[in-house]
Amino acid sequence: MIVPDANLLIYAHYDESSDHAAARRWWEGLVNGDDFVGIPWLVTTAFVRVITRGVAVIPAATPEQALDFVDEWFAFPHVIALNPGPDHLVNFRRNIIAAGIGGNLVMDAHIAALAMEQDAEVHSHDSDFGRFPDVRWHDPIRNPR
User: Fold this and answer.
1) Mean model confidence pLDDT for the chain
2) Residue 65 binned pLDDT confidence (cut-offs 50, 70, 90)
């Protein structure tokens, strides 16, 4: 299973991003591939928040457009919403303590804990995921496969 971070989904859907072409190839490879893709609700809400805000993405998407993108993701049979399981708090705590983090990186620790529960790999263009020693992660923009 692949667990994408919001940044890659934003780049894949925002034509003006300098990383759009690479992120789009990555996303199309996932949705046309065989691996399950587990999208955390935190990632979904971050995507909708960023692309409707009109700061990082100009022009901003309407809420309807943003949610249409989300509907497209979950229309693929191998793309699922990823929810915390019974080991989530243990893994979440482990990530925060091992990395010695707080603040903005807490969200990354949550995504990493979700991936750990599924024995999944996080895909992100954010190198902070390398701070979590028990998490497999890959940057498909820097290192396309």
Assistant:
1) 95
2) very high
Residues contacting residue 70 through CB under 8 Å, at least 6 positions apart: 44, 47, 48
Give the total number of structural domains in the chain.
Answer: 1
The answer to whether residue 144 sits within a structural domain is: no
Q: Which letter does DSSP use for residue 10 in this model?
A: H
Q: How far apart are CA 79 and CA 108, in angstroms?
A: 20
- Is 51 within a domain? yes
In a domain? residue 55: yes
Instruction: Show the domain range for 85.
Output: 2-138
Residue 56 has pLDDT above 80, yes or no: no
Q: How many CA within 13 A on the CB side of residue 55?
A: 5
- Quick: pLDDT tens for 4-48: 999 999 999 988 889 999 999 999 999 999 999 999 999 999 999
| Strands in 41-89 per DSSP E | 79-82
> In the structure, what pLDDT confidence band is assigned to residue 110 with cuts at 50, 70 and 90?
very high
| Per-position DSSP letters for 86-119, written without gaps between them | TTHHHHHHHHHHHHT--TTHHHHHHHHHHHHHTT
